[in-house]
Amino acid sequence: MPRYINGLGALVRIFAEKAVESRLMPRIVAADAAEVLEGEVREAFGKSVSEGGRLADLAEATQESRERRGFAPNEPLVETGALRESIESGVELGVDVIRAGVGSRSPVLAYHSVGYINARTGKSVPPRNVFLAGLEEARPRIERAIGEVVTAFLSGKVEE
Length: 160
Hints:
By secondary structure, the protein is mostly helical. It is built from six helices and four strands; from the N terminus they run ααααββαββα.
């Protein structure tokens, strides 16, 4: 027999009841979300606005320098591949919390995420935030996955 939910408060109560019964659903959502987001963040590298991506185009002088060195002219944050390879995701399972995240230990990527002033030229370098670009691409898939898992969980189709 279907269970009708009258308002957000009722939904929260039902969700809390179900969460006590099983911790599988949040683990599934966290792991799936982290995996999807990591993939989209990695895909964001090298995709400039003029090429259909979300990262600011490289300056003309930078593009010329890259071409002289044998690289594609307008692929932001792609040269050796080290920055892309520094991306990692993880899921932390605590007693009362489950955290999923995507990040990098690279300080270089931190500067690029927020923008900076080039010390050699004194010019401003615009932010090229691959995390935000990846999240914008991943959001619909993550929301859909959460909806599917929560629906299955509330209908009793997901068990420990």
